[in-house]
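Collaborator request log, item 7. Partner lab (contact: R.S.) asked for a structural prediction of ABC transporter G family member 37 to inform their binding assays.
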Amino acid sequence: MELTTLGGNIKSSLRKHGSSYHEDDDELQLQWSAIEKLPTFKRLRTSLFDVSDQNEDGSSRNESEGKKVTDVTKLIGVERHLFIEKLIKNIENDNLRLLQKLRERIDRVNVKLPTVEVRYKNLFVESECEIVHGKPLPTLWNSLMSSFSVFKKLIPSKSLAAKISILKDVSGIIKPSRNHSSLIEGFGCRLTLLLGPPSSGKTTLLLALAGKLDHTLKVSGEISYNGYRLDEFVPQKTAAYISQYDLHIPEMTVRETIDFSARCQGAGSRADMIMEVIRKEKEAGIAPDPDVDTYMKAIAVEGQKRNLQTDYVLKILGLDICAETTVGSALSRGISGGQKKRLTTGEMIVGPQKAFFMDEISTGLDSSTTFQIVTCLQQLVHITDVTALVSLLQPAPETFDLFDDIILMAEGKIVYHGPRSNVLQYFEDCGFRCPERKGIADFLQEVISKKDQAQYWRHNDIPYSYVSVDQFSQMFKESYLGKRLDEELSKPYDRSQCHKNALSFSKHALSKWELFQACMSRELLLMKRNSFVYVFKTAQLAITAIITMTVFIRTQMKLDLMHANFMMGSLYYAIVRLMTNGVAELSLTVTRLPVVYRQRSFLLYSAWAYSLPASILKIPLSLAEALIWTALTYYVIGYSPEIERFFCQFFLLFALHLASTSMCRLFASTFQTMVIATTVGSLALVLMFLFGGFILPRCISLNEFLAPRWQKAIAENTTIGRYTLTSHGLNFESYFYWISVAALIGFMSLFDLGFILALTYLKPPKMSRAIISKERFSQLQGKEDEESNRPVFPHTKSERMVLPFEQLTMAFKDVRYFVDTPPAMRKQGFNEKKLQLLHDITGAFRPGILTALMGVSGAGKTTLMDVLSGRKTGGIIQGEIRVGGYPKVQKTFARISGYCEQTDTHSPQITVEESVKFSAWLRLSPEIDSETKARFVEEVIETIELDDIKASLVGIPGQSGLSTEQRKRLTIAVELVSNPSIIFMDEPTSGLDARAAAIVMRAVKNVVRTGRTTVCTIHQPSIDVFEAFDELLLMKAGGRIIYSGMLGRHSSKLIEYFQGISGVPQIKANYNPATWMLEVTSASTEAELGLDFAKIYLKSPLYQETIELVNRLSEPQPGSKELRFPTRYPQSSMEQYLACLWKQHLSYWRSPEYNMARFVFMIFAALLFGAVVWQKGKEINKEEDLFVILGSMYIAVIFLGVNYCSTVLPYVATERTVLYREKFAGMYSPWAYSFAQVTIEIPYIMLHAIIYVAITYPAIGYYWSAYKVFCGISPHILRIDVAVNAFAGSRTRVYCLEGNYPDRWTTNAVVVNFKVNY
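Returned to partner:
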C-alpha cells in the first residue's frame, strides 16, 4: 500500500466538514516537522493524535477537529479507548490491517524484527513416585509412616520408589519462519497446534520448553533458543507460558490485572526498535502514518500505570465489555469462566515476549470466540514473527485450519510433527482415513485411542490390528517428515544469526524503584478493595475496648494491692488483644501466595518488591488500632494520668501490633498453608507470652507501676508499685521500657526481613505427593505388552440398569430476570435501577429429547438454566414455569432434577467412587435396597468411563488430584447417579478433548434414551457433538431467543431457517453448523446486515409452533398428579447424619496436614508448659507461684483453643462451595452436616485432651486422684476446646458457609476475637 494513499484515507476520515485535502496535508506536515525537531527522548513520546469533539457528558462525537501534537504517555482512559475503537472496529479484519501497517512501516526502513527458534532434542522427563500397598491415598497413617522414612533410609532395604516417564525421547523444532510461501503474503511464521489426549504430556512439554518445569523432575536432553541453552539466558523473560489454570487476585478488575502485568513486564525491545525506525525514517524523509506512529510509541514506553497495549489486548480478546469488572472468585461475584481464561491469556501476551506456550486457552469459550482469538494470534505470529505453540482440546475445523503445523502426542511420545496440510495423507499412509463431516482434530485424537481406532481403518482387504502409540511413534521417526526433522536438528543453530534483542539476559525489565512503585500502587488498591476487612477489624477492636473499659472502669479502682492486680490484668489483656488482632494478616497473606508465586515465577517482580509495600502500608493501620485502643481505654480504666505515659503506652501497643502483623506475614510465607501457618503462629504466641520478658513485664507494667501515684509506701523501703512488680517477678528499672520497645522494633524488622527471604528462596508448595499403588505400577509396567498381545474385540453393548422414575416435561413462558444495576453501569449513564438479563424467554423441554442451549458468551445461557432450575437466589424472576403441567415448586423440583455445574466442585479428600456413592446414598429413594444402589453406582462409573480412576482422590483443582476432564466426568456421574427425571448440564464438554467429549455425549445420549428430560449448555461443539442434539434453543447477547426448534438430520432445519433470511451467507461444504450459526448471528453480522434476529424469530412460524407446544405442555395430562413428597429430603435425618459423618470421617483421616499439625502443636505445647512450670504444683509457697500456675492454665486454655478454632477454618472453607452445591441438590439439611462435622471432631479432640493431660499433669505436679485427673481432662480441655470447637463448628462454620462473612480472614478474625474474649 502506498503511503500517500494510506495517509489520504486516514485524513479523509479525520478532517472536519468543509476542509480541503491540501489544508490537512500542510497542517500535518508542519506538525510532523515540529515533532522531528524535538530531542530524541521527547520525540519517542510525542505523536500526532486526534482532537475529538466531546459532548457535555464526555462522550465523543463522530467528527474530529484534526490532529494535535500529544505526549503519548499522558493519554487519558477515554482517549486510549476511543483510539483503539477507531483502529479496531471489526476485530479480525482491522487487527490484520493494523499489524500489516506496523510491519510495512518496519520493512520500509529495513529494520529486522527479533525472532526465536526453539529446539528440543531427545527430551526425557521422569517423576519419582512412592509405591504404597493398598490404595495410594495420603491418609494420616501413610503420612505418619512417611515421616519416618528418613530412618528407613539408614537401614539397607529394597527401595519403594519408582520412576514414571512423562516425556519419552521427544524431539522437534518450533520455528519462527517458514521457507515457503505464507498464508499471508509477504510474511511467514508458523503457528503450531499441540494436540493429544489427557495425560499425554502436553503440559509437561510446554513447561519444559518455557523453562518452568518443577526442579524435582528429572530432565535429560537438550532445549535451546536460537542455539542458547536455557541456563545461558533468562527464558522466563524471553518466553511466556500461559497456564490452563486461572490464578488471579479476585479484588482487581480485568483492566487493572492486565495493566499491572504490562507495567511489570515492560516494553522489551520495542523502545530500541521504534528508535531505530524513527532514525531511519528521518534519514529517508519518510512521514509515518500518524495512528501507527502513536500506537508504536505508546506501547514502547516502560513503567506506565495505564498502557495503550492493555486496551489493545482487551479489544482483541473481547474483554473490553468486562474491563471494569472485578475478577471474582468461587465465593464472590466476578467475570465468567471463559473471561477468566481470556484474562489469563491477555495477562501474558500484553508483554514483549517473542515466544508463547499456551496451554488449553479455549476452555470455556464458544467456538466463534475461540476462532476470533486464534485468528488474532495467527495474524500476530505471521506478521510480527512471534513463535507460538498452542495446546487446544476441541478445536473446531475452522480454528484447526488456522494452524500451520501440528504436533500430536500420546503417552509422552510424539506421533506426528509436521505441516497441517500433510497430516491426513500421513495417516492414510498409516492405514487410517478421516471420514467426511468429521473434524480433523477429533479424528487425530481418536485414531490413537484403542477404543476408537478401529472405525477409521481404511483397508477392506486387510484385517485391522491395533496400532499402538509406540508403533505410531516409530512410524513417524522412519517417515520422511521424521527424517527431515532429524536432519534439521543435526545442524546446529548459527548463533551469529540471533538478533541482539531476541533473548533476554536480565531478570527484570524495570528498575528497582519502578518495580517498588508498581507493587506499592497495587497494594494500596487492594487495601481499598479489602477495606471491609480493615474496617471490621477496627470496629471489632473498638467494641472490645469499650467492653474492656467497662469491666475495669476507674470508678471501681483504688490505689491498693488488690486493685493493682486488676490493673495488671487489664494491661495483660490489652497486649493479648492487640497481638491477636493481627492474625487476619496471616490468612490474607496465605490466600495471595499462589498468585504471588505465579507472578514471581514469571519474573514480574522480585519478592522484596511485593514484601516492602505489604509491610509499609500496614503501618497506618497499626497506628490507628493502637490509637483507638489507647484513647478509649486509658483514662476510662484509670491508668496514670500523665500525658507522657499515655503516649508511652500508645507507642508500645503500636510497636507490638506492627511486630505481630510482621510475624504473621513471616509465618504465612514460610509455611505457605493455612493450617500449618496458623498452628505455628499460635505456638509463637504461646512462646512470646511465656518468655516475652521484653513485652509484658519490662515494658507496659513498668510504664504504669513506676508512675508517681503508685509510689505510696506500704512497708519499709517498699511502695505499692514496687511491691506489685516484685510479686510478679517484674522488679526492673524504668529504662527497660526503651529496651523493650527497641526489641519490638527489632523483632518487626527481623520478621519483615524473614518475610522477604522466605518469598525469595522458598519454593511454592508442591501440588501433591507422587503416590502410586503397587498394583497400579505393575499394570503400567505391563501395559505395553498387554496392548500389543491382547486381541481387539468389537464392543458389545450390555443391557443397562434403569431405575424407575417419572417422565416429566418443563414448559416456561415469558421468563424475565432482573438484577440490580451495577454501580459501574450507573456511572456510565445507565439510569435504570434494574438490569434485565433475560427477555421474554419461552420454550419447552421434553422427555427423550436432548436440547442444546447455545449462544455467544454473555448471551444468558447459564443464567436461564439457573433460573429454570431454581439456583438463582437473588434478583427478580418473572414469568411462568411449569413441570409436568403444574407450577414448579422448588423444594419438590430439587428432588427430581440434577444440575451439572460448569465449575466442578467436589470434596477434595474423597475418591471418585466414594463421591458417587455419597450422592447415591443421599439422593436415591430409600425404597431402593443397598445392593441395587451399589450395582447402579458401578454402572454409572462404567458408563462415564471412570473405572481406571475410581480409587483416585478428587483433589483440589490446579493443585492435586484429577485432571479437568476427569473432574467434568465425575460431575456428570454424581448427578446421573441421583436418577433424575430432568437433568441440566452447564457445558458438560468444556475442558475436555474430542474423545472425552464424545464419551460424555455418548453417556448423555444413553441418559436421554431412558426417557429423561435433558438440557445442556454448550460452547464449542464439534460437528459430531452438535448433531447429537435433537433440539436447539439459541440465544443472542442480551438474553433473547433467536431460534428454538428441531435441528434435523445434519442440522438441515437449522440451516434452512437461517439461510432463508435475506443477506445471511450460505454455509460452506462440511462446515461446522454450530460455528456457522454463531458467526452469522453475531452482533457484527447483525449490524452489517441491518437485522435483528430476535424480532425475525418472533414473526416466524417456529415461534408460533413453540407457543402451541408450551400451551399444550402447560396443561396437566389426564390422570396425572402434582408431584409431592412426604419429606423435604429423600433420606431421614439420621441417615443424612450418618452419610455426612461417613464422608467427614474419610476427609479427616485423609487430611494429614490438618491433623498432624494439631497433634504436633498440642504435644509441643504440653511439653513446653510442663518444662516451664515443672513441679510448681507441689511448691506453691508464695503468691508469685500461684500466679505462675494460674497463668500457665490461662495461656493453655486461650491458645490451645485459638489454635483449634483457627486451623479448622481452612478445612471448612475448602468444603464451603461443596456445601452450596449439595444443599441446592437437596441432599441433606444444614443441621445434619453441622452435627456430623462437630461429631467427627470429638474423637480427635478427646485424644488431644488425654495426651495433653498425660504430659502436663505429672510434669506440673498437680494432686493425683482419679477424680481430679478426670476433671483435668473434661472441664479443663473438653469443656473449653470442644465447646469452642462446637461453636466454631456448628455456629461459626454455618455462618461462614451461609455467606455472612465474605472471606476467610474476616471469619478468622471473628473466631479469634470470640476465643480471646471468652
